[in-house]
């Protein structure tokens, strides 16, 4: 008897399984109000600048870009490229316009344009992030403990500078002959869990390996500050490339916080570099764009608080409201009374619900350009108001 009752439900389930699932459609790409029909890429442009000329949301550039697959690095733009806006099936498209002004796929295999990589325009302003592409370094606490370290100097020196030798322990195998001396600095902590996400390591000096051993001997070739006992050593690395990404939204659902600013400012604005409490373990990559929001903190409702203040002249322990109400002790209006006082009339109280959560308010957009396992560096690309450490970041709305 049970099977006939279940037949309608089984039939409905089979019909539903035959229908392909419908993904949530992303909102249509919106053009900028003054989007040009044609634009010539200029020296000094960035990919963000160019995308912003055509789109309200520059990070959606990959959705409208028509790259030529027959050209090496079809997604790169170079000064002198002529971009043309068109529409295909009602959707905007941008591509490099050929000489006759018509958008089409041009076969260039026999005559590939030879262009130095340095000429391709970068994704974000180079001068704003150049100092942070190689330094500072963010290192896990365990890596600091395991890293080679300066243990001493010849002739009983206390410090070392350019031209001096330094003795380093745990450097038993050579990893090239160029090394950097780093000094552990501030700890980056997750504001929600208190977890130490890593330590910033400041650059101290450059050094050249003379010989491995325990201790090894290195020669300081250039120094920004004096080398001290306890400084860490790592193999020298070249600056990370800047042009290997395009703007795109961060993974949907990702949320984090700004935990520091690297430019030494308190009010963060355009082209300042911020540190996020999310990194590669959270699927963040260079080029990911996030929006910044202020709000979410618990604040006092001043109007309700004034209404909820205990007016001892009108409300006394003899009233039922006094005993049944949800009061919260908030200190004393004057000095604390004597413990033997029968009724401390100057106790200050208020209702526990005299608070509210500040709504989120959009502050701007940032783009990640350097990623470590648990933190990342991002550049502020757009700021509608001053940002602050502690504000929330998330994938752009509608992405």
- The helix/strand class is mainly beta
Q: Outline, from the CA principal axes? A: globular
**Chain-averaged pLDDT:** 80
DSSP E strands, number: 22
Strand content: 25-35%
**Residues in helices, as a percent range:** 10-25%
**Unreliable runs:** 15-24, 101-117
- Main sheet: strands, sense, barrel: 7 strands, antiparallel
Using only C-alpha atoms, the radius of gyration works out to: 30 Å
Helix/strand order, N-terminal first: HEHHEEEHEHEEEEEEEEEEEHHEEEEEE
What is the count of DSSP helices, taking H or I runs of 4+ residues? 7
Calculate the terminal CA-CA distance, rounded to whole Å: 50 Å
Can you describe this structure?
It is a single chain. Strand 20 (361-371) and strand 21 (376-383) form a beta hairpin. The chain is globular and about 75 Å long. The protein is built from seven helices and 22 strands. It is mainly beta and 399 residues long.
Q: What attributes does this structure have?
A:
single chain, 399 residues, mainly beta, 7-stranded antiparallel sheet, 6-stranded antiparallel β-barrel, 22 strands, 32% strand, globular
Please give a quick description of this structure.
This protein has 399 residues and is mainly beta. The chain has helices at residues 2-18, 47-54, 61-64, 126-129, 141-146, 302-308, 320-324, and strands spanning 38-40, 65-66, 82-88, 91-96, 137-139, 149-152, 165-169, 178-189, 196-211, 216-223, 232-235, 248-249, 255-261, 273-276, 288-294, 298-300, 327-332, 347-351, 355-357, 361-371, 376-383, 392-394.
């Amino acid at each position: 008897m049970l099977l006939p009752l279940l037949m309608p439900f089984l039939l409905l389930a089979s019909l539903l399984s035959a229908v392909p699932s419908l993904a949530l459609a992303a909102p249509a790409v919106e053009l900028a109000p003054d989007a040009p029909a044609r634009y010539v890429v200029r020296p000094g442009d960035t990919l963000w600048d160019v995308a912003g000329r055509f789109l309200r949301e520059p990070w959606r550039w990959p959705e409208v870009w028509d790259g030529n697959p027959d050209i090496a690095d079809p997604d790169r733009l170079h000064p002198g490229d002529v971009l043309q806006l068109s529409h295909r099936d009602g959707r905007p498209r941008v591509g490099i316009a050929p000489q006759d002004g018509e958008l089409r796929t041009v076969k260039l295999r026999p005559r590939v344009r030879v262009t130095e990589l340095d000429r391709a325009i970068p994704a974000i302003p180079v001068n704003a992030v150049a100092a942070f592409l190689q330094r500072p370094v963010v290192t896990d606490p365990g890596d600091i403990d395991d890293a080679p370290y300066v243990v001493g100097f010849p002739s009983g020196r206390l410090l070392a500078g350019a031209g001096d030798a330094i003795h380093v322990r745990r450097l038993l195998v050579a990893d090239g002959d160029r090394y950097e001396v780093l000094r552990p600095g501030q700890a980056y902590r997750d504001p929600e869990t208190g977890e130490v996400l890593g330590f910033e390591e400041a650059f101290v000096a450059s050094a050249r390996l003379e010989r491995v051993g325990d201790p090894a001997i290195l020669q300081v070739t250039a120094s920004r500050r004096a080398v001290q006992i306890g400084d860490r050593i790592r193999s020298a690395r070249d600056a990370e490339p800047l042009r290997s990404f395009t703007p795109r939204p961060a993974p949907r659902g990702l949320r984090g916080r700004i935990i520091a600013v690297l430019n030494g400012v308190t009010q963060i604005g355009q082209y300042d570099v911020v540190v996020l409490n999310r990194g590669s373990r959270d699927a963040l990559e260079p080029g990911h764009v996030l929006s910044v929001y202020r709000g979410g903190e618990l604040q006092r409702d001043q109007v309700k608080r004034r209404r909820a203040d205990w007016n001892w002249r009108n409300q006394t322990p003899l009233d039922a409201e006094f005993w049944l109400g949800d009061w919260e002790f908030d200190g004393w209006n004057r000095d604390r009374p004597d413990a033997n006082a029968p009724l401390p009339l100057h106790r200050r109280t208020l209702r526990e619900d005299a608070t509210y959560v500040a709504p989120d308010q959009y502050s701007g957009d940032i783009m990640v350009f350097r990623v470590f396992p648990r933190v990342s560096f991002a550049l502020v690309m757009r700021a509608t108001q001053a940002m602050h450490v502690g504000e929330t970041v998330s994938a752009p709305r509608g992405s």
